[in-house]
């Protein structure tokens, strides 16, 4: 069973567009794997994917056998929180470009290649996200005590720490692996006003679970009063 406690959701920083551009700019010139790190930022901010889900995505989840990138990426129950499968959409041009750059980088280094030409010559069961040594990030199994009893869950501490470091080195206070989800949720709510759409996008069973992710700025509240009557 996949479960991950989410205490960081209500504390993760939601970024403004200028801040996101700044984090990506800093990530692109620092660290051991800047091409991968830029991809991580674009993916989390444009799809709302959780970091442990991201660590579990395989090449075959992302690419068709023909090598064409999937616009709809199905997150299997085995890798999602509470085993609730959902679909994320790879449609943002910058996200697509960042994935293409990462795959090209991997090909240059021979990471995860196969003699089979399908999936662009990558092994289909290879993870999308790799460490700076070209290895998959390890997923740890942990146990959390709930009122209903112990629940086992998987997490990827190393990738979470990496994401936090990307924000920290850019000077973004409170930035974490949940910042992408929270930023996307706030943006969708501001643009549509539909909490149920945010709920579906994030993959939550109840609308109440959405609120910790939302960042309602004072100007939004002020605007709501102005248009109320």
Number of helices: 9
Terminal Cα separation, in Å? 48 Å
In angstroms, what is the radius of gyration?
A: 18 Å
What is the helical fraction, as a range of percent? 40-55%
The proportion of strand residues reads 5-15%
Low-confidence stretches: 1-10, 204-209
Please provide the ordered H/E string of secondary-structure elements: HHHHEEHEEHHHH
Mean pLDDT: 82
| Widest sheet, order of strands | 1-2
Largest sheet: 2 strands, antiparallel
Shape from CA axes?
Answer: globular
The counted number of beta strands is 4
Structural class based on helices, strands and sheet pairing: mainly alpha
Structural summary, described in words:
The protein has 229 residues and is mainly α. 42% of the residues lie in helices and 10% in strands. It has helices at residues 17-27, 34-47, 51-56, 59-62, 93-109, 157-169, 179-192, 195-202, 218-226; strands at residues 72-75, 86-89, 140-146, 149-155. Strands 1-2 form a two-stranded antiparallel sheet. Strands 3-4 form a two-stranded antiparallel sheet. α1 (17-27) runs antiparallel to α2 (34-47), α2 packs parallel to α7 and α7 runs antiparallel to α8 (195-202).
List the helices and strands and how they pair.
Blueprint: H1 17-27, H2 34-47, H3 51-56, H4 59-62, E1 72-75, E2 86-89, H5 93-109, E3 140-146, E4 149-155, H6 157-169, H7 179-192, H8 195-202, H9 218-226
Antiparallel strand pairs: 1-2, 3-4
Helix pairs in contact: 1-2, 2-5, 2-7, 7-8
């Amino acid at each position: 069973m996949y479960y991950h406690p989410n205490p960081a959701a209500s504390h993760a920083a939601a970024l403004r567009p200028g801040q996101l551009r700044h984090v990506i700019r800093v990530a692109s010139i620092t660290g051991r794997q800047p091409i991968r790190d830029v991809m991580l930022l674009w993916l989390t901010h444009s799809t709302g994917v959780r970091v442990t889900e991201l660590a579990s995505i395989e090449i075959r989840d992302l690419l068709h056998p023909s090598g064409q990138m999937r616009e709809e990426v199905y997150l299997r129950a085995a890798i999602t929180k509470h085993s609730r499968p959902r679909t994320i959409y790879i449609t943002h041009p910058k996200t697509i470009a960042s994935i293409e750059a990462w795959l090209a980088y991997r090909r240059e280094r021979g990471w995860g290649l196969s003699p089979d030409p399908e999936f662009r010559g990558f092994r289909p069961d290879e993870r999308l996200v790799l460490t700076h040594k070209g290895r998959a990030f390890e997923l740890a199994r942990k146990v959390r005590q709930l009122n209903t009893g112990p629940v086992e869950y998987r997490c990827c501490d190393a990738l979470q720490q990496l994401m936090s470091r990307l924000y920290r080195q850019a000077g973004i206070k409170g930035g974490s692996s949940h910042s992408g989800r929270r930023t996307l949720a706030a943006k969708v709510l501001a643009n549509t006003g539909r909490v149920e759409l945010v709920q579906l996008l994030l993959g939550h069973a109840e609308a109440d679970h959405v609120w910790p992710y939302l960042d309602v700025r004072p100007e939004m509240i002020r605007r709501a009063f102005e248009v109320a009557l």
